[in-house]
Structure formats: structure tokens, C-alpha cells
Recover the amino acids of this structure.
């Protein structure tokens, strides 16, 4: 609190706070603090403020000052939500960096960073005005009458209730009319979303604490057998813990809530309601240990030695080389030194296996954080990290925003994965790069790990910016799998292709099943049929909102758009020419699964893709069942490539490698190498030998041969040579600017204007505009502008400032009304 003393009088200084609103506005906004709250104001606390005419938001205090805003009169903050800050200075520094680096608003970073339960929403409530019940309603239309009728029954309604009542989304004009007529009142009220999970626990009255008391109690309940069963269940369960959950007693005894209530009323049972964790397994604590082999010991010592001079170290270790054990030992050391550790994984699918391993070592000091948790669970993890209750947190990319108190180590596993990149909505950040900056501001060490590092990471390591440690042999007695290529054209000519499977692949699968081994099949396209086409006129079933073909899904028996979610029934008759000759083109994981059921009827088959793993525990269910050998064959998309460890997998089948290699993207070869190598790495783990069958129309392709030879160095050298020649990362920075509008001509004209403005400052570094591969999504036409900015000899900060100013002028131009602009820095 700012104050000064003159004589015996103390004068309070009027304080103002700059706040971050959860909106895409370019600046912070300033509010006035009521004098009585001066001592309670602190950076990082949430306050309730009004922004705009009626809207009320919770905002984060960004700065406290005694200077009022110059251009507008500051409104008072309405309320203060927190006793202590939920965001600290280090997090705000991270938010600032993300906002600056990725050219987005600070409010957009706040939206991504905070769990939804901590971003309190303004919920509009509707109440009937005094005397409205006596008003003549004959002049009202049906919908107005229905709203007032509902308000007679219920004292208040939310806007969402009225939307459901009327079955329409646009209810505000209707409410405005009723408001103008004086029949309703509209108020904005902040409602907290986070509520701790409460659980009822049962205890036994002190009169029955000893054996004699319990015997007398059971005798007294002889005429009430159900109550007697409940008491017996309690006695049995209380041997495990003193306070027994009510639900456990009811399940064990089969008694009802009424029986439990009767025992409480008699004073036999005592009741206690308390907050419990929503997070599974938090009470698990098991001891576990392991011993390094020679290669791991040397790698561990090298990592420690590199950390002495480098803040970031890249661990390049082949699949199944025991990288996770190195991570665990480094985490143990960091925790022993009193530091927090963040362990990032690219996919939620990996958290189950990794979490089980880490719980062996860290028990209930391990937290897990990812998007499959509901809002309350995410808020609970946030508070536990804030209160330093977790030593280690395992999470997907959003875990970089957690409020660590003493971060000492960040591990980014599978650092090459594209899943670390957030594409929509803003901020379009990359979790690996963000984690490196997070480590920098905490003074923490960062370890990047991968069998196939990103070209940029390996380039930085080779250039000396990062440390580099390599682990080139597998753990234990396992060897890298044998990789066999199959020419699809040749097999088709010989007639040995059965559906999508070569004779070689089928033979290997049958042999593996006979040996009670398991098989993984990789097809990087989900659904059943990617394309339905009329054989007569060539018509293709397309999405009505996007320029993309619809994919048939057998599970729903619908055609689905993978961009906007639109679905419709599959076509039986061509809408263009009336022909009934509709043929399927291509195949996805559902089709592979279907064909396998015919070819290998005795095999137990599971599918791992986005469709089969919906729901909070979808991944866990499939992976656990496969690991427990309840399935023989796992058919999946790229999810099967990401760090999974199955001991009985001896055969990997890559159904068609060409789709990966021929994708129109400058990183296609790098990603194809990575994905093929990672999928291959799932075979021959633990102590078994493995075989990988790669089916392709071009088995002699450079990338396939480099995967066979495990020649990452060769791939890297070829790729960096080409990228330097064609001006791509790591030698150039890329900015992708998408211009969107519902009218194609309008977006084309606007994109041309924007490109011309950018060329005034950046010249030949501006490419386009061009329509992307999918030129219309959700009814918005898209044109893309690409900026290529060299890393040497130019200030990237000045380039970003120029882009920001150009976009401000562009948005202020009335000719661009209705045009949306989206900036993606490092769009890969």
C-alpha cells in the first residue's frame, strides 16, 4: 500500500491496476482500486471488472500503479477474488514472451494458460420485473409469452436455459424487447466454477470403540439385519482406514441411503464431509529401482557434464535405448535438491505408461496434467502445483503454464513431435520452445530427448547452442528390428496382394500369432473410406462447409468432415448424374480392421485412433488391454508411433509408406523418416527380436533406405542442404499469415492489399498470397501469405514490430471490414 505521513495524518494514495482480460485486445486495461482494498491488491490476483457496456469478467492484475490512465476514466474494480496470487511474476514473464514471440494478445495467452474453472464467466440471468405477472400478455408473441410463463414457475433463468426452452440460439433480441417493455430485468452475475469434490465419510461413535462395545451394538441390531450388515461392513472396511467412505459401506453391505440415515439418526454412525482429490491413484506409493548399463552410465555422466556449461542438452538415443531411465535418475536428483520437475510428453496416450513408471519412484508427489482432465481436475492440479504439493508434473503441452515454485529441470520427451505445436486457437505456441524459455527464466536445465530429433534441434546441438549426448545402442539384449520392404506394384502384378496386405506381411503376422506374439499395423488415416466417387461422372462427396472430401466412418455409418465436424448419410445415388455406381477410394484404419477380420478370423483386433479413444480413459482402455495381451493386433494411426512400450510386439506392418513421403510440406521427408523410424521402434523391445514390413510403391526411395540403415545423420545432412538452398528453417524463420472471409473475391482482394503492404517493408521476403491445400474451412475462404526471414543480418524483433503495425493499419482500413487475419510464427 502506498501512503505518506504528514504530522499525525496519514493520507492514502489512490491505486490503479493494469489487468489482463481474457480477450484478444492488444493492451492491458486500467481500473481504479477502492481505497479500502489497497492493502489487499497484489500482482497475480484475480479481480472482477466490467468491460464494455454490460459484460463482467475476471481479470489478472498485471501491474499496480498510482498513475491513472491518460485517455479514459478508470472504472472501479468490482471485487477481489483471491487471498493470494494464483499467477506469479515468472508466469507473467512467460506470458509476455509468448505474446511477443507468437504475435498474439496477452489475453489470448491468459485464456490458454488458466484452467477454465479459474476463468470465471459472466452468466446473464433473467428475472421477472415487479408486477409483470399482472401485465396483460395478449399483445406478446408466442416466444415472449413462453419466457414470461417460465419465469412464473422459476424465479430466475439463465440465458442458456432460455436457449434450450425456445430451441434457438439468437435470444438476445427477444430479451431486449421484453426488457424495453419493462417486463424483465437483466443482470450480470459472476459465478465461481471451481468447487472441490466432496465425499462423505462414516465413523463409529466412541461408545463402540472397543470390541465389547461393538459386540453389544451388533446384538442390539438383531431385529434390523440390514443395519447390522452396514455396521459389519464398516468394521471390516475400517481395518484399512479409520474413516470409511459412505459409498464403500453401501456397496459392501448392499444397504440403502435410508439405512445409513437411520444409523446416523440413532447416533451409531458419525458423518464427515470433506474435500478429496479427483485425481486417480494419488495414494499410490511403490518402491522401484533399476541399474544403468554401461552406455546409459556414460550418457548420464555426459548429460551432467554438458549441464555444467549448457542450459539445454539434446539426448539423441535410438528407440528402446533406455532414455526414460535416464530421465528418472535426473528427476530423482533434481527432487532431492528441492527442485520441481516438469516432464512434457507429446500425447495424452503416453501419460498412462510413463505415469505408471514414475509413480514407482515418486508416489503421490507426482502430478498429471492434460486436456482429458475436466475443468475441476485441472484447477485442482493448478492449486497443488501452486502450493508446491507436487515435486514432479507429467503433462502435455499446456503443462508449461503451471505455476511452478522452484523449477529445476524440464524434460521434453519425443521433442520432435508436431503435437507440441498449438495450431488453433491463439496463442499458436510450440511447447518445446516455450519450455526452453520457461527453463531460462527459472534458471532450470532443459533436456530434449528423441530417437529422431527435429532438424532445428539437432542443428542447434551441432552448432554448439545446445549440448549433445548420443545413445546408440538398445537397452538389454534387444536389437534394432529387421526392416523388410515390399513393392506393392510387384506384389499386385504377381497376385500375392490380398486386400491391402502383401503375402510377406500376412505370412509374418500369421507366424507372430502362432508364436503368441503381437502385431502393430500402421495406417496414417482414420475412418473407413477417405473418398466416395461416382464411377460414371467423377462426382466426389464433399463437405458443404469446407473444400475437402468427406470420409466414411463405419462406426457411425456416416460421412464425416475432419475439419469442421459436418456429417451426413453416405450417398447411394450420385446427386450429379443419378448413377448408382459409387466406388470407394482409399482406406483408413476402420477398413484395415474390417479386412483383417476376414483374413485372420481368429485374431483379436483393436484399433487406436481418434475415433476409438474418445472419452477421458479411451487411450488407457485400448493400451492397457493390448499390453495385457487381450488383443493380438493393434491397428492405429500415428498414435502407435509415440513412445509406447509393448514387450510382446514382434511384427510391425506399415501398410502404405508413400502417403507420408509424398505429402506437400517442406518437412515431409523429415517427418516420414521420424514416423517410420518411431513406428519401427515399437518392435523387438525388451528381450524379443522384431521385424518391420514396409509396403510401398517406391521401396528404393531415399527416406525408406535411410530408415532401414538407421541413418539419421544422412537424412539430416541432405535435408539441411536443401533447406539452406530453398530458404527454410533452421536458416530462415517462417511466418504464415492466413486471411479469411466468407466471400472468395473479398478475401483475395484483402490478401493482395496485405501482401503489398508487407512488401513495402520486407520486399522479396514476402511470398503469396496463395490458396492453401484446403482453401475453404467452415465457410471461410483462405489465402495464405508466407514470410521467410533470414536469421543472420536482420533483427527479428523489428520484423515482428513491422508485421504488427502493418496488421493494425490493415484492420483499421474500412475496405477490410469482416476480414479475419491469423498469424502463425514458426508454422510447423
Amino acid at each position: 500500500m502506498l501512503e505518506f505521513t504528514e504530522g499525525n495524518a496519514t493520507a492514502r494514495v489512490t491505486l490503479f491496476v493494469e489487468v489482463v482480460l481474457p480477450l484478444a485486445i492488444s493492451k492491458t486495461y486500467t481500473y481504479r482500486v477502492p481505497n479500502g482494498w489497497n492493502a489487499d491488491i497484489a500482482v497475480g490476483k484475480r479481480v472482477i471488472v466490467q468491460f464494455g457496456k454490460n459484460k463482467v469478467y475476471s481479470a489478472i492484475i498485471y501491474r499496480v500503479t498510482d498513475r491513472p490512465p491518460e485517455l479514459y476514466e478508470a472504472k472501479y474494480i468490482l471485487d477481489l477474488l483471491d487471498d493470494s496470487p494464483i499467477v506469479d511474476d515468472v508466469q507473467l514473464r512467460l506470458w509476455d514472451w509468448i505474446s511477443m514471440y507468437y504475435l498474439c494478445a496477452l489475453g489470448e495467452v491468459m485464456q490458454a494458460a488458466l484452467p477454465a474453472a479459474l476463468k470465471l464467466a459472466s452468466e446473464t440471468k433473467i428475472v421477472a420485473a415487479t408486477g409483470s405477472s399482472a401485465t396483460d400478455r395478449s399483445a406478446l408473441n408466442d416466444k415472449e409469452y413462453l419466457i414470461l410463463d417460465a419465469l412464473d414457475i422459476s424465479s430466475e433463468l439463465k440465458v442458456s436455459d432460455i436457449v434450450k426452452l425456445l430451441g434457438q440460439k439468437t435470444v438476445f433480441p427477444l430479451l431486449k424487447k421484453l426488457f424495453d417493455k419493462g417486463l424483465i430485468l437483466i443482470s450480470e452475475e459472476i459465478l465461481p466454477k471451481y468447487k472441490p469434490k466432496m465425499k462423505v465419510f462414516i465413523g463409529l461413535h466412541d461408545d463402540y470403540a472397543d470390541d465389547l462395545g461393538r459386540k453389544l451394538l451388533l446384538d442390539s441390531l438383531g431385529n434390523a439385519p440390514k443395519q447390522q450388515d452396514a455396521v459389519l461392513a464398516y468394521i471390516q472396511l475400517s481395518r484399512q482406514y479409520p474413516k470409511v467412505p459412505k459409498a464403500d459401506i453401501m456397496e459392501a453391505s448392499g444397504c440403502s441411503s435410508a439405512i445409513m440415515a437411520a444409523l446416523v439418526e440413532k447416533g451409531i454412525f458419525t458423518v464427515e464431509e470433506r474435500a478429496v482429490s479427483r485425481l486417480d491413484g494419488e495414494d499410490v506409493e511403490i518402491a522401484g529401482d533399476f541399474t544403468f548399463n554401461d552406455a546409459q552410465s556414460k550418457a548420464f555422466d555426459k548429460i551432467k557434464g554438458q549441464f555444467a556449461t549448457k542450459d539445454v542438452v539434446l539426448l539423441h538415443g535410438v528407440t528402446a535405448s533406455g532414455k526414460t531411465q535416464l530421465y528418472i535418475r535426473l528427476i530423482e536428483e533434481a527432487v532431492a535438491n528441492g527442485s520441481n520437475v516438469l516432464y512434457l510428453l507429446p500425447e495424452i496416450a503416453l501419460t498412462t505408461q510413463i505415469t505408471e513408471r514414475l509413480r514407482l519412484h515418486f508416489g503421490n508427489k507426482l502430478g498429471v496434467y492434460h486436456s482429458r482432465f475436466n475443468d475441476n481436475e485441472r484447477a485442482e492440479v493448478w492449486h497443488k502445483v501452486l502450493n508446491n504439493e507436487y515435486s514432479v508434473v507429467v503433462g502435455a503441452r499446456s503443462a508449461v503454464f503451471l505455476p511452478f515454485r522452484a523449477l529445476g529441470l524440464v524434460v521434453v520427451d519425443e521433442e520432435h513431435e508436431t503435437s507440441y505445436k498449438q495450431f488453433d486457437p491463439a496463442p499458436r505456441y510450440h511447447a518445446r520452445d516455450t519450455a526452453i524459455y520457461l527453463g531460462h527464466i527459472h534458471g532450470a536445465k532443459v533436456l530434449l530427448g528423441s530417437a529422431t530429433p527435429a532438424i532445428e534441434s539437432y542443428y542447434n546441438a551441432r552448432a554448439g547452442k545446445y549440448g549433445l549426448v548420443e545413445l546408440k545402442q538398445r537397452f538389454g539384449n534387444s536389437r534394432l528390428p529387421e526392416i523388410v520392404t515390399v513393392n506393392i506394384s510387384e506384389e499386385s502384378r504377381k497376385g500375392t496382394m490380398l486386400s491391402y496386405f502383401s503375402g510377406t506381411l500376412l505370412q509374418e503376422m500369421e507366424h507372430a500369432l502362432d508364436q503368441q506374439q503381437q502385431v502393430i499395423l500402421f495406417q496414417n488415416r482414420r475412418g473407413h473410406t477417405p473418398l466416395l466417387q461416382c464411377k460414371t461422372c467423377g462426382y466426389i462427396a464433399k463437405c458443404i462447409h469446407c473444400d475437402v472430401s468427406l470420409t466414411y466412418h463405419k462406426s457411425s455409418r456416416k460421412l464425416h468432415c475432419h475439419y469442421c465436424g459436418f456429417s451426413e448419410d453416405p450417398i447411394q445415388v450420385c446427386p450429379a448424374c443419378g448413377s448408382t455406381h459409387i466406388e470407394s477410394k482409399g482406406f483408413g484404419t476402420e477398413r484395415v480392421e474390417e479386412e483383417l477380420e476376414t483374413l485372420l478370423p481368429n485374431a483379436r483386433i483393436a484399433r487406436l485412433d481418434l475415433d476409438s479413444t474418445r472419452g477421458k480413459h479411451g487411450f488407457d482402455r485400448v493400451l492397457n488391454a493390448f499390453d495385457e495381451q487381450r488383443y493380438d493386433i493393434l491397428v492405429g494411426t500415428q498414435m502407435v508411433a509415440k513412445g509406447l512400450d509393448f514387450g510382446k510386439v514382434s511384427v510391425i506392418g506399415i501398410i502404405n509408406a508413400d502417403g507420408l513421403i509424398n505429402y506437400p510440406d517442406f518437412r515431409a521427408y523429415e517427418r516420414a523418416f521420424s514416423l517410420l523410424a518411431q513406428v519401427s521402434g515399437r518392435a523387438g523391445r525388451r528381450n524379443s527380436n522384431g521385424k518391420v514390413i514396409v509396403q510401398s510403391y517406391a521401396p528404393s526411395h531415399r527416406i525408406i533406405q535411410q530408415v532401414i540403415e538407421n541413418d539419421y545423420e544422412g537424412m539430416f545432412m541432405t535435408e539441411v542442404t536443401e533447406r539452406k538452398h530453398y530458404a527454410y528453417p533452421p536458416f530462415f524463420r517462417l511466418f504464415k499469415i492466413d486471411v479469411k472471409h466468407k466471400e472468395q473475391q473479398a478475401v483475395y482482394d484483402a490478401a493482395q492489399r496485405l501482401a503489398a503492404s508487407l512488401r513495402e517493408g520486407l520486399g522479396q521476403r514476402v511470398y503469396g498470397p496463395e490458396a492453401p491445400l484446403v482453401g475453404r474451412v467452415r465457410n471461410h475462404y483462405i489465402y495464405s501469405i508466407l514470410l521467410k526471414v533470414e536469421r543472420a543480418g536482420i533483427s527479428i524483433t523489428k520484423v515482428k514490430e513491422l508485421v504488427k503495425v502493418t496488421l493494425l493499419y490493415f484492420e483499421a482500413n474500412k475496405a477490410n471490414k469482416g476480414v479475419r487475419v491469423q498469424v502463425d510464427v514458426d508454422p510447423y
User: Anything to note?
Assistant: Residues 744-762 form the longest helix (19 residues). Confidence is low (pLDDT under 50) at residues 1-11, 278-288. The chain is about 35% helix and 25% strand. Residues 121-191 form a domain with the Arc Repressor Mutant, subunit A fold (CATH 1.10.10).
